[in-house]
């Protein structure tokens, strides 16, 4: 790979990235006009590829394609322009929607999830067009606006445009690398289901003195329900929850044990007095290989003397192996409704997004190409094969509908406060990402790790979603 592009200094790109971050494209709450503004910003960046905003039943997607390399492989680049809510503004050191340089990082909502990583690919493609007059392979783009709310309308869109989106491989600009000290590729991600449990007592809030001791308290009842979901060892106590979770083999345990990882450093970085989780598994085994059921929020009443008439808990589960999302929700529902909770009404609201776990075979030719590309940028460093403990809803959809595996190739890093206040991106990762994406595209187009259709489809057949 003798040729290489000339890229501008990363800091010179920050004002343009700042324009993108400044658009508050929070898919959970933003107005349609705001989401369209973000989509149009991306589409303008894809002018060389007929970039355009295309309607869905929800927020629009951005499409583009450059197909000027006949006979060469075709990839589909996936990412998203929507972002998470800011959380408490008081916890931010600056305006969440103003890109702020803070030493060797830039801060702002979405800068690492997923606007910065998408921006890197856009700038790479533009550099190829400007300096070489084209791309080394055929590239399609699909940038959606609902990933942070579970991509509820992406499935219908992809199914109705499957012929147009067909590719040999999907490369996701979303999906953070494991940690900043070493290059990594993720070969799996966890699935996701979520639900709300609402407990209702009286028709209105009641004075805690006048009525206390005469009616059931929904908060007490909800606490009983939540406490029943796990046993004292941290294991989920819901019958049937673990159906489809594979046994952790001795070989896999040995692989994980060989990954440098210090429990105490992890604990200190998180600011917790001690680590906790399912007994019988190491911290990294729990993080990468075990499913979870987490209570992500509880709301009811307040600091005033009433018995609240309702209490609500928000739950989410991260899934592994072949756990079936619908079965998991049904198991939780059966568990909750099977409890003897008197004096209240219990209602469960199941969220519609149901994402199974995903895996790409570590032997897939694209993984070899990506590892070599990372070696160009990080010479002499081993590339860690990791697992994304989070969820990327589009992966199993692309495999089912397009027959293509998804490879994660993001230059976000998992410690950069994704979804939290003071989200940041290391400035050096912009330049590193540009060089690695360039190397990847050249390797996939030509050479030992090129995307020949036979090799890719064979690998896809052997590495089905799990």
Would you mind describing this structure in some detail?
It contains 14 helices and 18 strands. The radius of gyration is 23 Å and the shape is globular. The chain has helices at residues 14-21, 32-45, 115-132, 154-160, 162-165, 218-227, 250-257, 263-270, 283-289, 325-337, 365-377, 394-402, 428-445, 453-462; strands spanning 52-54, 61-66, 74-80, 100-102, 105-107, 138-144, 169-172, 184-189, 191-200, 206-207, 292-299, 306-307, 310-319, 345-350, 358-359, 384-388, 406-408, 424-426. The two termini are 35 Å apart. With 466 residues, the protein is α+β, with helices and mostly antiparallel strands. The chain folds into two domains: 10-189 and 357-462, Aminopeptidase, CATH 3.40.630; 191-245 and 291-350, Alpha-Beta Plaits, CATH 3.30.70.360.
What descriptive keywords fit this protein?
single chain, 466 residues, Alpha-Beta Plaits, alpha+beta, globular, Aminopeptidase, four-stranded antiparallel beta sheet
Kindly name the structural category.
alpha+beta
**Radius of gyration over C-alpha positions, nearest whole angstrom:** 23 Å
Number of E strands:
18
Straight-line distance between termini: 35 Å
**Low-confidence parts lasting 5 or more residues at pLDDT below 50?**
453-466
Mean pLDDT level = 94
Report the oligomer. single chain
Number of domains: 2
CATH fold call of the largest domain: Aminopeptidase
